């Protein structure tokens, strides 16, 4: 068990399932994953039949309920595509109902594929830190459970370095306003597969404009890095 998860288990904010306790999962999706983004018209998965353009970067962000988090990112210039899914758990190709039991270990995550020439990784992370409360453990606002934990899954060392640096810069700003320690899980995407969520979850707030949005943002800006 990672130090992150051990710390949360001792925080009284939830209980993380173990690999032995987790639901078994399956070899493939039990539902059809949409091909194209409902807003941007771009493919949400890179496949042999429909590959993403060269030069894109990808990062995966857990910010609580993934509906509102995805909407933040598809609106940003430089973002090629977004998708919602489940990440950081044990159960392969889970369903939403399974994730909601807390027995898969996943958090709700948003895939963001972006062009660094148009939007920097720093700006991607600035929206991440400022659009949720990264100190709440297994919770985000009124949403309780391990599936709502804050997380970042990086795809290269440069992202990891910037995530750690921005977290270090943000921590004292939060502490100065009475917030606790950052509980965000920081881990490589490799070894933490992103499983796409069901089609009705993808770009949900475009399909249901008055739908549920959960943003437990602190209102505290991310300081600039030296």
- Given the C-alpha coordinates, what overall shape results? globular
Total of DSSP H or I helical runs spanning 4+ residues: 6
The first-level CATH class is given as Alpha Beta
Structural class: alpha+beta
* Biggest sheet record: 6 strands, mixed
The CATH architecture name reads: 2-Layer Sandwich
Any overview of this molecule?
This protein is of the alpha+beta class and 226 residues long. It has a single domain (3-14, 58-207), classed as 2-Layer Sandwich (Peptide Methionine Sulfoxide Reductase, Chain A), CATH 3.30.1060.10. The protein is built from six helices and eight strands, in the order αβαβαβαβββαββα. The chain has helices at 3-9, 66-74, 96-100, 121-130, 157-175, 204-207, and strands spanning 57-62, 79-87, 107-114, 139-140, 143-144, 151-154, 185-188, 195-196. The strands form two sheets. A six-stranded mixed sheet has the order 7-6-1-3-2-8, with helices on one face. A two-stranded antiparallel sheet has the order 4-5. Strand 4 and strand 5 (143-144) form a beta hairpin. Helix 4 runs parallel beside helix 5 (157-175). It is globular, with a radius of gyration of 17 Å. It starts with a helix and ends in a 19-residue tail after the last helix. Residues 1-13 have low confidence and may be disordered.
